[in-house]
Amino acid sequence: MSKYKKLYSTLLLGVVSIAILLAAVFSYSKSIEENYKEENLNSLKELSNQAAVMLYNEIANKQNLLQELSHDVGRIFVDDPQAAANYLQDAAKRNNFKRIGVALPDGSSFTTDGAHLNIAEREYFSKVMNGHMAVSRNLDDYTDGGRIAVYAVPIFDESSQDVKGVLFATYSLETFRNTIEISFFGGAGYSYVVQENGDVVVDSKHPESFKGFQNVYAALLTADPVNNKDSAEKLWQMINRKQDGYIEFYNKEQKYMYCSPIGVNNWMLLTVTPARVIEDRTNTILNKTYLLGLLLIVIFLAFLWHIMRLHARNQKKLMDIAYVDEITGGYSFARFFKEAELGLVTSDKKTAIISMDIDGFKYFNDMFGYEEGNDLLRYIWREVGESLNTGELLAHGVADTFIFLLHFDTRDELLWRINDLCLHLSHYHTRTGQVYKLALSLWIYEVDGETDDIVSMADRAYIARQTIKNKGDTAWAFYDGAVRNKLLHEKEIESQMEKALLDGEFIAYYQPKYSTAEQKLIGAEALVRWQRSDGSIVSPSEFIPLFERNGFITKLDRYMFHNVCKQQMLWLQQGLKPLPVSVNMSRMCLYDPHLVDEYIEVLEESGLPPGYVEIELTESAIFENTEVMNGVIEALHKAGFKVLMDDFGTGYSSMVMLKDVNIDVLKLDKSFVDDIGDERSEKIISNIIYLAHSLQIEVIAEGVETEVQFVFLQSVGCDYIQGYYFGRPQPAAIFGELL
Ligand code: C2E
Ligand code: CA
Ligand code: CA
Asked: Cα dist. 204→178, 245, 258, 384 in Å?
């Protein structure tokens, strides 16, 4: 999963979690809001009902008081109403009455404040004269026009129980209001008392109340005819049924009105509070909830951030391991590929991917040690790194492989840079001050746009190495059309090789070997040829390197060995005198511990006596692992095979090495023979031969093409000659004629 995908999924997780959290806070707040509204309406209801009860008690108390007083007053009243009024002075004062008075049946009254009023017109008066107690609605005081309410009780004649007068107590409405207008909801609430028909009994002084209104229904409809219509209707129903309950209404703002029956005169207590008060209280709680939600989100985000940071840190640690090359401290291949992918898109120049390694790095390591080897790698990394332009990349991979990415405009420019770089890298100074000549192999893949991923491009750069021929010096090759065709061709060969072996398409050609002294035929080398079903002959250079890479070579070598044994046996049986024939054994035999045993088995099966077949091992194979090779050589000797060291002089061997391997014949490589004519080269050849002879090793020169070469080799005591000068590799039938 890419870094961005991970980031997105984390972000998504965060967003979803926050959304869930927000939804939870929202629904929680909704339920809180509803609960709170209900709770507040309930407290409004309680307040209202309590106030109604208080009001009822207040009225009942006052009435009780008046009733008691009426007994006392009843006795003195008839004789002297003024004295009765005087008697009540004290009670009036104690109970905060504006006045108490006694009235005669004609309505004339005597009061504690000395006002002589006639109350015959008052509604309560007639009610009381009929034997009931009464509480008046609010009235205008006859004396000073102030608003008042009046309690009144009958004064009964003790013996006849007739009503002989009225005892009344006048409250200033102010005082009455004080009873009901307890402060609630922080002073925002207020109350009215109304009659059954909605006419007001006690109004309110509260600044937000209906001012000077006569009827509550009318007041509601005046305040907001549209919105309050239903509410007024609802209130009317509640009052008429003497039920309690609430309405919502509008008077500049939304309000709640709670209606509680008082139980006196069909009066109703209406308790009002603005919706805002309830909402404010709810909002306070809600704000706390939101704050908590926000806090949770913040904590959650912090937590998420922390987790992501931890994750990123771990990721970075892992990345560092995978992305940093241990030896150079620079990019690893993994990092290179990752960066290269981005780099390819961003540059408008052409791009080349170059795979590079050091020829004989293993040899260098063996000679100078691993530390020095690592120094060399760091040196190359540094030098190449310094030559890079911005946007170009370099990485060190396993062992001595490097890969780098260059941008360029023309192929000439690219080659010039590579050439310059190689020249720069050509000499390495070891810790001990020695100058080591570096040979590099570079495989260049020009990114052509149609190709796919960077890794396979790098592979192609690496594959291009196969086209590098002249090892021993710095060289480069392009992965281009030719390489592509070559690879296609190799694919084809690989698909055919097994069947070709079964069908006997691989045959041995015999190249004669001659003695230099007598120029006598002394043997031959068996060289494989692929004779296809159409009769065409394929040369080994086209398939041997491939078989060495894919491992098929060991099968082919065994087959050739078997073939040669059979052929020699045939010649023997034909009465001819066969000469020793050498077969090539690939370096791959090093990795197959059973190979020699298998060869011995094949030899025994053929019935051929030992001595007729010899084995050629290439010098570089011997050098690669001297110990293992000596084991192989020893086993071969035991089985009666002579061992020849092929291609002497092409690898990294030194002549000193000859003493370490027990070979019988040294095959001087064609490259030495080609140099005959050059004085120094000739000196080397004669010394090699001298040294070999001193170690009881015979010498054969291969690739001898001219008489000049032959004469020289003869003069320096080279034992045998193989080459076109004496004979080319030829089919068994033709070579057999020489025997
Ligand atoms: P090699 O073992 O060094 O064989 C000698 C090569 O030099 C042969 O090439 C031979 O034809 C060629 N040659 C001989 N005299 C002359 C000469 O005077 N002038 C020139 N220009 N060339 C000469 P060939 O047959 O093409 O084989 C090439 C290589 O393929 C061999 O080099 C050997 O390494 C490999 N090879 C051939 N057959 C086998 C085999 O059966 N098994 C293995 N493992 N390798 C084989
Ligand atoms: Ca050979
Ligand atoms: Ca050779």
From this structure: 10, 20, 15, 97
DSSP-derived secondary structure for 407-422: EESSHHHHHHHHHHHH
Least confident of 176-185, 300-309, 462-471: 462-471
Q: Are strands 665-668 and 698-702 parallel, antiparallel or unpaired?
A: parallel
Cβ contact 435:427 at 8 Å:
yes
Question: For residues 579 and 174, which has the higher predicted lDDT (pLDDT)?
Answer: 579
pTM exceeds 0.85 for this model: no
Residues 6+ apart with CB under 8 A from 19: none
Distance 694 CA to ligand 2 centre (A): 23
Judge contact between 343 and 405, C-beta under 8 A: yes
Residue nearest to atom 10 of ligand 1 (CA): 729
540 lines ligand 1 (CB under 6 A): yes
The ligand 1 atom at the shortest distance from the C-alpha of residue 528 is 38
Compute the average pLDDT of residues 480-487.
74
Q: Is 527 in the pocket of ligand 1 (CB under 6 A)?
A: yes
Q: What is the pLDDT of residues 421-471, one digit of tens each?
A: 988 898 899 888 888 888 888 888 888 765 556 677 677 666 666 566 545
| Distance set, CA 561 to CA 443, 531, 584, 604 (Å) | 36, 17, 8, 12
Half-sphere exposure of 47 (CA within 13 A, CB side): 24
Predicted local confidence at residue 211, as pLDDT: 83
CB-based burial, 23-55: b 16+ in 10 Å, e otherwise: eebeeebeebbeebbeebbebbbebbbebbeeb
Q: In 623-697, where do the E strands start and end?
A: 642-648, 665-668
> Closest Cα partner for 52 from 151, 147, 194?
194
| Residue 702: strand pairing partners | 722
Mean pLDDT of 503-508: 97
Contact 102, 77 (CB under 8 A): yes
Tell how far the Cα of 502 is from the centroid of ligand 2, in angstroms.
24
